[in-house]
Amino acid sequence: MKYQPLSSSLYIKNREKFCYKLAESSVAIFNSNDIMPTNADGTMRFRQNNDLFYLTGIDQEETILLVAPDCPNPNMREVLFLRETNEHIAIWEGHKYTKEEAEATSGIKNIQWLSNFNQVFNTVMALCCNVYLNTNEHLRAGVVVETQDARFIKECKEKFPLHTYHRAAPIMHELRGVKEKEEIEQLQIACDITEKGFRRILSFVKPGVTEYEIEAEYLHEFVRNRSNGFAYQPIIASGASACVLHYIENHKACVAGEMLLMDVGAEYGNYNADMTRTIPVSGRFTERQRAVYDAVLRVQKEASRILMIGTNIQDYHKEVGLIMQSELVGLGLIDQTDIKNQDPAWPAYKKYFMHGTSHHLGLDVHDVGTMHGPIKPGMVFTVEPGIYIQEEGLGVRLENNIVIQEGKGYFDLMRNIPIEAEEIEELMNG
User: Fold this and answer.
1) Are 124 and 27 in contact (CB under 8 A)?
2) Where in the sequence is the signal peptide annotated (predicted)?
3) CA torsion angle for 169, 173, 174, 175 (degrees, to 10)?
């Protein structure tokens, strides 16, 4: 792996928090993600199941975690199962975890090969009443491929129909929504790498440069700083393409006088940055571009200020909408008649700002965590308002990543990434 692993103390602590939430006489099972096929004998790059990674730090396929905190046999309260390596695998695929390395990474003392799983699991099931199984319950998940977790649920219920089954996902959402200090440090590294990429392209962008060349500049800077690359498919959208929220073709040439919207982030140690910046291709904002840019920046700053402990995210989004409404009136994009006649379910401002302002950030770019309960210290959010004026071929979005702090408002993980219009112009023309 390219990244520097975190201490096993984090994963020990995470498992303790998880086990505290379980019912008495319980066992919980977490499976690694599959290696997904492409075509012929090709596969996609492996990405560990984030819940398993959160609880173990193990970044390898064919891994199973079993936790049974009340098991009468203390040796079976935490067991980690790994794919057994051999000389053939080492030659063709490279090094895999040894038992000693897996213990050092996870803090789990009982490390076994996968071939022993059924025997151990059968024994633990005979001693437990409640079973916690994992599923992807993200609010926006579109699950169409059967996962290892899904296959295991079928097998487990068929083999042990009389146990009481529970969902692990609500517990994991609650725990992962609040970040530990070590996790925030990983997120900071991802943001710092993202900053290096952005500063690199500020001196690179000029009329005639293509979006894919800009994408390549980011990737070069990310990987050379020990990132696996982009945290998500990058959006490099010049001109009118910035009004397409998930534009990922990145194939056009940048034209003088247009704006360039870049939604990119580096991944580091499975944690993700999520940044958006919008810059003038020619290095200077026009008067209209600057007016729209400043309006978005004011909303971004005010939204960061009101995203605080105890706030309900749904109420927060409504309040940001009112702030944006005022800015759009100031830009002449909507007027009081539009507001008076608006559909409450789709306010007038939604014509130019149609997406949400914030989402959780962490091991997933759109991380798990409550979207209805009160905000807590340690939660990490994006703040990303935008204005998209299709009739002018102009789209501006600005996005930073912030940590909600106890009694201190927020801490901006992207505080060092240029965002003020004057600094952008200065760096592009320096």
Assistant:
1) yes
2) none
3) 100
Whether residue 247 is found in the same domain as residue 374: yes
pLDDT digits (tens, 9 = 90+) for 133-168: 999 988 888 888 899 999 999 999 999 999 999 999
Say if 33 falls within a structural domain: yes
Write down the residue that tokens 């070590």 correspond to.
182
Closest CA to 132 of 149, 117, 147, 145: 149
DSSP assignment of 324-368 equals HHHHHHHTTSS-HHHHHT-BTTB-GGGGT--S-S--B-SSSSS--
Number of domains forming the structure of the chain: 2
The residues, ordered by sequence, that sit 6+ positions from 88 with a Cβ below 8 Å of its Cβ are: none
Q: Residues near 74 by Cβ (< 8 Å), separated by ≥ 6?
A: none
For residue 311, what are the domain limits?
181-428
| 189/130 same-domain check | no
pLDDT at 384: 98
Classify strands 400-405 and 164-167 as parallel, antiparallel or unpaired: unpaired
Residues 142 and 225 in one domain: no
Identify whether the C-beta of residue 200 lies closer than 8 Å to the C-beta of residue 217. Answer: yes
For 193, the token pair is: 């790498």
Structure-token pair, residue 288 = 């209209």
d(CA 211, CA 262) in angstroms, rounded, equals: 9
pLDDT of 408 > 80? The answer is no
Within this chain, do residues 305 and 161 fall inside the same structural domain, yes or no?
no
Do the Cβ atoms of 204 and 404 come closer than 8 Å? no
- Residue whose entry in the numeric block shows the structure tokens 């580091």: 268
For the full predicted model, state whether its pTM sits above 0.90. Answer: yes
Mean pLDDT of 271-282: 98
**Two tokens, residue 192:** 């710092």
Residue pair 62/84 in contact by the 8 Å Cβ criterion:
no
Question: Do 216 and 168 share a domain, yes or no?
Answer: no
